[in-house]
Amino acid sequence: MKVTDKIVAKINRIDTGDVFGYDTLGLTSDEIIAGSKALSRLVDKGVIKRARKGYYYKPKVSVFGEQKPREDVLLSLYLFEKNKQVAYITGTRLYNRLGLTTQVPSSIRVASLDKQVKGKVGNVVIKPAKSYVKVTADTIKYLELLDVIKDLNTIPDLQKSDGLVYLKKVLYNFDTTGIKKLVTYGVAYPPKVRALLGALLEAMNVDTVNLSLLKKSINPSSSYEYGITPKMLSTVNSWNIV
Length: 242
What we know:
Blueprint lengths: L2 H10 L6 E3 H4 L6 H14 L3 E4 L2 E3 L2 E3 L2 E3 L3 H9 E2 L2 E2 L2 E3 H7 L9 E6 L6 E3 L2 E7 L9 H11 L9 H13 L3 H11 L4 H13 L4 H9 L26
Parallel strand pairs: 9-11
Antiparallel strand pairs: 1-3, 2-3, 4-5, 6-7, 8-9, 10-11
């Protein structure tokens, strides 16, 4: 069977709106070049559309016109490699999902440790952000929380007191193992993040081992500007937070 015939037969079994790549088509290494050319011809004919480099979808047409795959499906192309998560959404888009801001950004920040993630999903531009530790499915919930602490001063429309209530609520749901992981990842973040994390955990009476690790990681002569008073968080003074 010719490579083109093999690809067309596979595509005919794929549902409209589903995104697929070379692995879905089952192409061998010897068939990649011919397969790439065949896919380009199918794009030119309008049989398939290009979602991003190396990924395609069969367009779904309704009475409202052509419909693209759901945004979350297209975003997953930037967040996963070989079915493993290697990047995550951060910034205002994350804070909107968490209920910390009502603003909907015109771009999406995607954080990865090893690469800069850039692209476009529909009219939304994907911009790179920094991840301070390796991104896995297990680390993301910790990194999201640490990002909130890092950006607490700049999250649109967020009152500082409301941000602290959110952080305390999430932290109370972590068990001992979760707190240990959070502190381990937190040490990789900037000093101000470590300081506020320490102040929050101290207010919760977390074990001294984790607090000691955070305390040793920051400069005792430095101060960290968050605009948080002792009335808002009783432990800020011992962590030089102003």
